[in-house]
Amino acid sequence: MTDAHAAVSRKRGINPIWFVPIVALVLGIWMVIYTLQSEGPDITITFSTAEGIEQGKTKVKLRDVDIGLVETVELGEDLESVVITISLEKTAEPLLRENTQFWVVRPRIGKSGVTGLGTLLSGGYIQLAPGDGADGKRAYVGLEEPPVTPSSTPGVRLVLTADKAGSVSAGDPVLFKGYQVGRVETEIFDIERQLLTYEIFIDAPYDQKLTSRHRFWDVSGVSARAGADGIEIDSVALETLLIGGVEVGLPLGVEPGQPIETGSEFELYGSFADVNKRPYRYSLEYVVRFPQSVRGLQPGAPVEFRGLRIGEVERVMLTELARTIPGASQPQSVPAGAPRGEGIPVLIRIEPARLERPDSEAGLEEMRKILQFAVNNGMRATLATGNLLTGSLYVSMDLFSDVEPGKIGEYAGRPMLPTAASGLDGIQQKLTVFLDKLNELPLEGTVQEAQNTLASLDRLVAGDGMQSLPASLDETLKELQQTLSSLSADSELQTRLLPTITELERTLTSLRLVLDTLDEQPNALIFNRKYKDDPRPPAGSQ
Amino acid sequence: MRMTTVAASTVLLLPLLLLGGCSSTPSEPTLYLLRGQPAEGSGEVAASLRFGLGRVILAPYLLSSTGLVVETAPGEVRSARLHRWAEPLDAGMRWFVRTEIARSLGHEVGGGLSDVMDWDYTIDLYVGRLHGSMSGDAMIEAAWVLRVAHDDTALREYRFGKRVPLPQAGYAGLVAAEEDLLRQLSAQIAESLRPYAEQAMSAAEDPDGAAEPAGAP
């Protein structure tokens, strides 16, 4: 019996069974890499509330295209907000920039209409608005309201300020010649400045047409004016009438200025009439003190230089005046340098742009120098009568030649221009001075002396000598007449006198010849003068 | 002793000097009368119109002496010592011119005797130049103004300038030449008055249409 032995040999190589896990590993790695490459970024957005947002359901859209999904919804650390984690698609990564905006689209009813009705059925979603700026941002603060203007819209953003709330609010149109060129985006009350601040957006290319001299005014409503031509009613489009709006334009008679820049601040006027009352932005405030009554001087009254309007009256400074009155509650708060009882202080506003100066800080500085120079050379403010019937007054500035060089003073922390009396008030003052001097005259004594003098004169006239005076005077006049008649042209005296005078003239002529001779030859009285022979004129040629 | 001799000599010499001075014979000047031809006959100033010679004003150099003036060089004159006018030149000229105007015009001209208030028109005469020259000429420059007598209003002004040769050498020739110049001047003055005279004559012939004499033709 032969034992059969199996020959065992080790087979070299890798068992094919290992291909299975290798392939699985490769596939796994590939899937990981693929997943990592195809997954978009995760971002967080903070909202004040998660209304309408559901984890794993609410989508993120751009132009109605899904680009992400809400992964988690969590309360913020301060418990006052909600932090939403969103997984965006890879293609949405370039959209994540500094100014990219997110807000929740849900049904809303606003001034401009009803929006988001489609979300009633489909549910809310988060809208992404691409922005500009640096990329790589991953944490955002969502908008509670949809932005009126997307951040990428071309145009300029401006700031309007108003001292009181009108009917303008966010979303209202901005009109230029009645056509909408922009909109009001936000409405904020600035506590520090005590002003209402509106942020508006002007669409391109209309922003190129607006300049620094354009003005904005509220056109929400109807304005009516009654005049000699009847009643005139101004209104705007029905939409603007109902929901409000802002009109932009140039004041009457004002030329366009410099192009506007983003962020420029303008005042929001109450009406176009207010714009024309004060069409310029920059103005200088001065105090003028008038020693006479300011009855008839109203805020808004013109300030003129030789008939040219350069500003307006702001107000009569009653508050500051009250502090200067003795016995006031706070006499210690009298403004430094404020004289007592020297006139009613009036605050006026002078606008450099009315004198063709720049409507800017540079224009203010230039105007200050002009006023300083003018005051030094005799410029004074006077109170003039604008309307004799109504008694309205205005402030007139002019150069006076008979005044000392003045200087700009200070009152209540404001520069003060010197004043002068003029017009009826000037006459009244001069009349008062004259009457005072007249009153000081000793009239009673003078009248008594005059009476005594008249009595003496009466006695003198009644005297015998005076009674005989007419007869003596008559005789004297007769004698005078006779004397004058003897001097008449045909009188004997004249007849004799004229030839005598003629003879006298000739004698004087002869005497002059003698004197000339003696002057030439002093001994001519004794010795005969030797004359040269007279020149002998020749005969003329015929 | 010596002083007494000198004083006595002086007392004797002084009268001798005075007598010697007086004994010299002064030159006798020749005097000329400006009258022209003597007027013959008589006349009456026209009743309807009368002219009168008013002011006769001569340049001062003609009145500074009575000698005849000769221009010895341009701008240089000399008044003759031995050839003089017999009377002040303005008086002689007034008589001469008035006579010559009347002769030319055919009317008497007032100017010396009658009352100036009776004249209708007055002639004021200004003579700025009247003298001879060493080139044998005599020259005159004059102007006259015709005025309304009652208010002295000037109506017209005329000018006259002339130069004539001396008919003979010497001052007699100069006097003759100046008389000739004044005669021509008077004729010109008479010509300027003639329209007024004719108007007055026509008015006198037609009393109904008589016009105010002051109305210049």
Task: Describe the protein's architecture and organization.
The complex is a heterodimer of chains A (542) and B (217). Chain A is an alpha+beta fold and 542 residues long. Helices cover 27% and strands 29% of the residues of chain A. Chain A is built from eleven helices and 26 strands. In chain A, the strands form five sheets. Chain A has an eight-stranded mixed beta sheet with strand order 23-24-20-21-22-19-26-25. In chain A, a hairpin with a 4-residue loop joins strand 12 and strand 13. The longest helix of chain A is centred in the last third of the chain and has 29 residues, at 492-520. The model of chain A is unreliable at 328-340 (pLDDT under 50). Chain B has 217 residues and is an alpha/beta fold. Chain B has one domain (53-204): Rossmann fold (3-Layer(aba) Sandwich). Helix content of chain B is 36%, strand content 31%. Chain B has helices at residues 2-23, 60-63, 89-105, 171-205, and strands at 30-32, 51-58, 67-73, 76-85, 109-110, 121-133, 137-148, 153-165. In chain B, strands 1, 2, 3, 4, 5, 6, 7 and 8 form an eight-stranded mixed beta sheet that branches. In chain B, strand 3 (67-73) and strand 4 form a beta hairpin. In chain B, helix 3 packs across helix 4. Chain A binds chain B through residues 490, 506, 509, 512-513, 523, 526-529, 531, 533-542, and chain B through 17-18, 21-22, 24-27, 63-67, 70, 72, 78, 80-83, 88, 115, 132-138, 164-171, 173-174, 177.
Average of per-residue pLDDT values of chain A:
81
Shape descriptor of chain A:
elongated
Which oligomerization state do the chains in this entry correspond to?
Answer: heterodimer
- Residue share in helix of chain A: 25-40%
Q: How much strand of chain B? A: 25-35%
Tally of alpha and pi helices of chain B: 4
Could you state the order of secondary-structure elements of chain B as H and E?
A: HEEHEEHEEEEH
The percentage helix of chain B is 25-40%
Most extensive interface, residues per chain? A-B, 21 and 40 residues
Distance between the termini of chain B: 94 Å
Largest sheet of chain B: 8 strands, mixed
